[in-house]
Write a structure and sequence with these properties.
It is a single chain. By secondary structure, the chain is an alpha+beta fold. The protein has a single domain, classed as Thiolase/Chalcone synthase (Peroxisomal Thiolase, Chain A, domain 1), CATH 3.40.47.10. About 40% of the residues lie in helices and about 20% in strands. The protein contains 15 helices and 13 strands. The strands form three sheets. Strands 5-4-6-7-1-8-12-11 form an eight-stranded mixed sheet, with helices on both faces. It has a three-stranded mixed sheet with strand order 3-2-13, with helices on both faces. Helix 4 links the parallel strand 4 and strand 5. Helix 1 crosses helix 2. The chain starts with a strand and ends in a 31-residue tail after the last helix. The structure holds acetoacetyl-coenzyme A. Acetoacetyl-coenzyme A binds next to helix 2, helix 6 and helix 7.
Length: about 450
């Protein structure tokens, strides 16, 4: 059977950065360690005044197409995943295709275009759509361009403000891919939830603490559903486990939950018994609260074990290095996490071809999706082509006042006059809301 999966990845960060432990924490009067250790963030990326979801997505896609020697004729489908859309009718993919047509001097009239929305899980859903389209044989030999692009902004003063971010991930989905092959092993956890939503509003209404519980509950369901297809999982089955990363502290919790789930009823759980006891079983408790309390105590002990810390350091921590520098990119976040892990492996000389990844995507509202991928032979060459480190180094480090001004610029409700800036040559830039199509 022909392998289908991710053939190429490009990451495009917003050109500004906010230093969280210093600039942000100082102004908020908070301990820098809350950001560095608690949330796990050093910096977040912001869009400059001439950037938006279209320019970031188009710039990522342009670099990907040029690097792979592609023209619009090679692409049969452009799907954009975003929760920052500004148009309730025209999909963002049409704006991005319009930009790309200017550069490649060829049109995308033959390409199917769409916009996927289910909060942050929509990037993964778009990959699924592309996979199914190719597997169904409707692609006529063409590849799909999937672009996850977001400006993840919160109301100023909202607890989520510390976890903002902006950037785009462009991915080429094709037959015989270079980076990873997608498998049919997939599981879901989905429920109607209202902890994070944006009904006709730009900035989300968030119940932050509840949103973390919902993330973990849906992720556990998705893992159980995945196991119903793929069989029992074991922590050592996967080289890396990239999760949706709203902030690395969230993934610390998801990693522990996954590990605890995977070791239950194994010989390894028996081996750990002398050290930390056995996992509590729900049936052993009279009520849910006492079961939860016992489980929490077990997890606290588990996370201190040498075995867990070693596993976390190998399998989860390498997925977080880019997120620590860029914050939450919503739909792009889990794809940034996969890239972080592969990039880390390339830099440390690991050989990954044939190894498996378990990818945990999540979208508020809420749905978790877990699937397995197998790393393909061309993964390292693809990682060597990334220029994300240079992009991160080139970001302009904002003062707090500049941050507030930029936040206002991107607030659709505010008219903010910013005349002084330099647009980079050769990139798509945004020239104003009144001139929607003027992206050069
Ligand atoms: N030193 C070390 N650690 C510290 C510290 C210090 N001085 N001060 C605080 N911390 C730790 C806290 O103990 C906490 O860690 P634990 O959760 O492990 O205990 C962590 O830092 C954060 O501190 P708080 O809980 O006090 O932070 P907060 O209440 O100000 O904000 C938040 C946290 C509620 C998650 C907020 O960032 C938020 O609302 N974020 C947006 C919603 C979100 O991202 N939810 C995630 C799940 S939903 C999702 O994933 C979809 C999506 O993309 C949005």
């Amino acid at each position: 059977m022909t392998a289908v999966g991710i053939d190429a990845i490009e990451i495009w960060t917003g050109k500004l950065k906010l230093d969280l432990p210093n600039t942000f924490a100082e102004k908020k009067g908070e301990d820098p360690e809350k950001y560095r250790k608690g949330l796990g963030l050093e910096n977040s990326s912001f869009p400059d005044v001439y950037e938006d979801i279209v320019t970031m997505g188009a710039n990522a896609a342009k670099r990907l197409m040029e690097r792979k020697g592609l023209t619009p004729e090679d692409i049969g489908r452009i799907d954009v995943a975003t929760e920052s859309s500004f148009d309730n009718s025209k999909p963002v993919s049409t704006y991005i295709a319009g930009c790309l047509e200017q550069v490649f001097d060829e049109n995308f009239h033959h390409a199917n275009k769409g916009e996927r929305k289910f909060a942050c899980v929509a990037g993964t859903q778009s990959i699924d759509d592309a996979y199914n389209w190719i597997k169904a044989g409707r692609h006529r030999g063409r590849a799909a361009l999937v672009i996850a692009t977001d400006t993840a902004l919160y109301e100023r003063g909202d607890p989520g403000e510390a976890t903002q971010g902006a950037g785009a991930v462009a991915m080429l989905i094709s037959e015989e891919p270079s980076v990873v092959e997608l498998s049919t092993e997939q599981g879901y956890g989905s429920a109607d939830e209202t902890d994070f939503l944006k009904p006709n509003q730009q900035f989300p209404s968030v119940d932050g603490k509840r949103s973390m519980q919902v993330y973990l509950a849906r992720m556990r369901e998705a893992l159980e559903d995945f196991e119903s297809v793929a069989g029992r999982t074991h922590p050592d089955d996967f080289e890396y486990i990239p999760f949706h990363t709203p902030f690395p502290g969230m993934v610390r919790k998801a990693g522990l939950l996954g590990y605890r789930h995977m070791i239950r009823d194994t010989e390894f759980e028996d081996e750990l018994e002398d050290e930390i006891g056995r996992q509590p079983r729900e049936a052993e408790y009279d009520d849910w609260d006492s079961y939860e309390e016992a489980l929490r105590a077990y997890m606290d002990d588990l996370k201190e074990t040498e075995e867990y810390q070693d596993w976390y350091g190998r399998v989860i921590d390498p997925t977080l290095s880019l997120a620590r520098e860029v914050g939450n990119w919503y739909t792009g976040s889990v794809h940034v996490a996969r890239t972080s892990a592969l990039k880390h492996a390339a830099e440390t000389g690991e050989e990954l071809t044939g190894d498996r990844l378990l990818v945990g995507s999540y979208g508020s509202g809420a749905q978790a999706e877990i699937h397995a991928e197998t790393v393909r032979e061309g993964w390292k060459e693809e990682m060597d082509e990334l220029n994300i480190d240079e992009q991160l180094d080139d970001r302009y480090d904002m003062s707090f006042d500049e941050y507030e001004l930029i936040h206002d610029v991107h607030d659709h409700e505010k008219e903010t006059d910013v005349e002084e800036f330099t647009r980079p040559v050769g990139e798509f830039t945004f020239t104003g809301w009144g001139r929607m199509n003027e992206r050069k």
